[in-house]
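User: Teach me something about this protein's shape.
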Amino acid sequence: MMRPLRLVAVSGGLQQSSKSTVLAKHLLSLVAKAVPCDVRLISIGQRVPQLAGTTFRTQLPSLLEQELAAVEQADILIVATPVFRGSYTGIFKHFFDFIKQDALVDKPILLAATGGSQRHALMIDHQLRPLFSFFQARTLPLGVYATDTDFADGCLRNDALLERAQLAVEKGLPMIELACRATTCADLEAVAA
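Assistant: First, the predicted structure itself:
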């Protein structure tokens, strides 16, 4: 029996119920509807005290080590971050500084960001894509960018944004299906060994 895909979302939101986390959860649900997978959400905002001031991965507490391992072992990754001054937060980058350099090679990654206005919409292509290109990951063709006006009462409320999110997942399915095949092949090789 083949295992379900491991789908991990990382939210760079700094508050408990940040817009980035709401967006990440929505994208998690869309991908989980499209392919069978085990889902996990990692909220960096809850780990700021453990991350801040830490220089080496060996200094991190075991819970953070487990979260880093979950990202590295994921078959599909979703990243969502708030935009501050045209880029992701320092703590978001610091989290990914601890990821092993080759851990994300060929991993499909859906990129998402939230910001106060449309002025930062290109941040996905100008900041996030280069970061994950360094890791040699396969960023999905469409990113999802949401502004404050796309939310109401802690939920996504803009129909155009919801359609964009659905389209981003649909356009990413061929890459996700490749990850499924790779996982199935790896499982078959492990059984045969």
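Now, about its shape. Strands lie at 5-11, 37-43, 76-82, 108-115, 138-139, 144-147, 151-152, 155-156. The first strand starts at residue 5 and ends at 11. If you'd like, I can walk through any region in more detail.
User: That's plenty for now, thanks!
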